[in-house]
Design brief:
Elements (H helix, E strand, L loop, with lengths): L12 H11 L1 H11 L2 H23 L4 H5 L3 H12 L6 H16 L12 H12 L7 E2 L11 H10 L8 H4 E2 L2 H10 L4 H4 L13 H17 L6 H20 L7 H5 L4 H8 L10 H21 L6 H19 L12
Antiparallel strand pairs: 1-2
Helix pairs in contact: 1-5, 1-12, 2-12, 3-5, 3-6, 5-6, 5-7, 6-7, 7-17, 12-15, 13-15, 13-16, 16-17
């Protein structure tokens, strides 16, 4: 028989980070199934770059290598960045974004626990602003255009920028479902006609909707394992659904259904893996509610009216800026203190 006390030791940072990485596997598996294994190359490059940059910065800061390299936080940053950019991105794009996120957004602020911004989202923002053309070449789902790039050909393009003689990049890549929607709306097409295009499936974009479901399943595992609290994903997805649903009811020809927003772009990845970052987020439950609702509103506004197709990364960074103020507003009163404490 087991004897009391029945107290379990809290999970270490490395264990928590490893579980979060494990929770990404269903979404990555869907990515490979519908778009090919190129994403695994990006994840590998990002992982190597993240660990190498982490080691270099620790060395420059005279910090011990082993405890920080084995906490898996740099690895998680690399994976998040790789999953946020096109799978056929050239190797140097992955390296630049990952290295910037680790070196600048993480270590220049003092390392893990001190960085006010999500390092992966900072790396993404730098890439999409600096290299917008490279950030638009998203792979077409298998079977949509009848042309599938083999894994050796994907490797050849990622590392050398060379495609088979009979293949063009335009035939292999396409705009994201969100980008296509925004472009066609500006051209005057109603939502119902746009949704009939071959790129779209039942919920959102073909392939991408299944990737989102995979990340959603990973998020449910994290909720079950109590790695994250329910407040952030539920409030974020609920607010996004409510805002998108209201505008869709008012003008269905100009605004898509809320489920489209859930299963497009990085909404699921953001709800469970980005906005739940404990370092850049609020410390109180009320603060998390405000933070998540604000992130959802910004996501919808950027998607609907902004210059970028998706708004998750910028919503995360903008809400990171607001966290100190949110924490100040939502700190509970100190027990035993009355009025202004005088």
């Amino acid at each position: 028989m087991w004897s009391s006390p029945f107290i379990s030791a809290p999970a270490s940072v490395s264990q928590i980070m490893l579980r979060v990485i494990f929770a990404m596997v269903p979404g990555i598996a869907m990515y490979v199934w519908f778009f090919g294994p190129a994403i695994l190359v990006s994840i590998t490059l990002a992982s190597i770059t993240a660990l190498a940059t982490e080691a270099l910065m620790l060395k420059l800061r005279n910090r011990p290598l082993k405890p920080f390299l084995t906490d898996n936080s740099a690895l998680l940053t690399g994976w998040l960045l790789a999953l946020s950019i096109p799978a056929l991105a050239p190797w140097w794009l992955v390296v630049v974004g990952t290295a910037f996120g680790i070196a600048v957004a993480k270590h220049l602020y003092g390392g893990l626990g001190n960085n006010p911004f999500n390092p992966a989202m900072v790396g993404y923002a730098v890439l999409i602003i600096s290299f917008p053309a490279h950030m638009t070449h998203w792979l077409t789902p298998h079977g949509l255009e009848g042309i599938v790039l083999s894994f050796p050909d994907q490797l050849n393009y990622i590392f050398h920028g060379i495609l088979p003689a009979s293949t063009t990049l335009d035939a292999l890549t396409t705009a994201t479902p969100l980008d296509t929607l925004k472009t066609q709306l500006h051209l005057g097409l109603p939502v119902n006609e746009i949704r009939d295009m071959p790129i779209y499936g039942h919920l959102a974009g073909k392939g991408t909707e299944m990737v989102a479901i995979g990340f959603g399943l990973g998020g449910l595992y994290m909720l079950y394992a109590r790695i994250i609290s329910w407040h952030t994903p539920v409030i974020y997805l609920g607010t996004l659904f409510a805002i998108a649903g209201l505008f869709h009811l008012v003008d269905p020809a100009s605004y898509v259904a809320p489920t489209f927003h859930w299963f497009s772009g990085a909404a699921m990845l953001g709800a469970f893996f980005i906005f739940t970052d404990p370092v850049g987020g609020p410390t109180t439950i009320k603060g998390r509610v405000i933070y998540s609702a604000g992130a959802a509103l910004l996501t919808w506004l950027i998607r609907s009216y902004g210059g970028f197709p998706d708004g998750v990364a910028f919503a995360a960074l903008l809400m990171n800026i607001c966290v100190p103020l949110i924490d100040t507003w939502t700190q509970p009163k100190v027990f035993g203190r009355k009025g202004d404490g005088k």
